[in-house]
Write a structure and sequence with these properties.
It is built from 4 helices and no strands. The protein is mostly helical and 168 residues long. The model has no long low-confidence stretch (mean pLDDT 87).
């Protein structure tokens, strides 16, 4: 067991015939007691400081472990999100490609139908034009016909003139 300042203070030495000077020994012991008390006080302060720093170190070690775990969890979650996003993007791309193919096929089908309708309308317009031309030519032939000239040669007696004569 270590000495205490009280042990040093209470220590008594046997006196011999030519022993040490008692006052010098007492002064020296008083100085040793003061220094020893200071060493003990410093030791207690340092132990308290070590304890405090150990607690802080443990606290920060726990925080570090928690942060490391959180980082690992966040990285795993990020990887999961990334994988899910890639899967979803592939599905979206496949769906878009299907829709694009469907739209292209529908458009090609519609354009073929429209092309057929255009050709049909062209044929109908040619037929209409031919018939219309024939109709106009027939009407022109009627106008050019000599029958019109014969109609102008007929003399018509006025009906009004006869009615007036019979009144008189």
């Amino acid at each position: 067991m270590p000495l205490t300042p009280l042990d040093i203070h209470n220590k008594e030495f046997n006196k011999g015939f030519r022993g040490y000077d008692e006052d010098e020994v007492n002064e020296f012991l008083d100085q040793v007691i003061k220094d020893y008390e200071m060493v003990i006080r410093d030791k207690k302060e340092l132990e308290a400081r070590v304890s405090e720093l150990t607690e802080k170190l443990n606290h920060f070690t726990n925080i570090e472990e928690t942060l490391n775990k959180s980082i690992i969890i966040a990285q795993e979650a990020g990887e999961d999100v990334k994988r899910n996003a890639q899967k979803e993007s592939k599905l979206i791309i496949k769906e878009a490609e299907k829709n694009a193919d469907r739209i292209i096929n529908e458009s090609l089908s519609k354009s073929r139908k429209i092309a057929i309708e255009i050709e049909e309308l062209k044929k109908q317009s040619k037929v209409f034009r031919t018939r219309f031309q024939m109709l106009i030519e027939a009407q022109l032939d009627l106008l050019k016909n000599d029958d019109w000239d014969h109609l102008l040669e007929y003399e018509v007696e006025p009906i009004f003139g006869e009615a007036e004569e019979s009144k008189s």
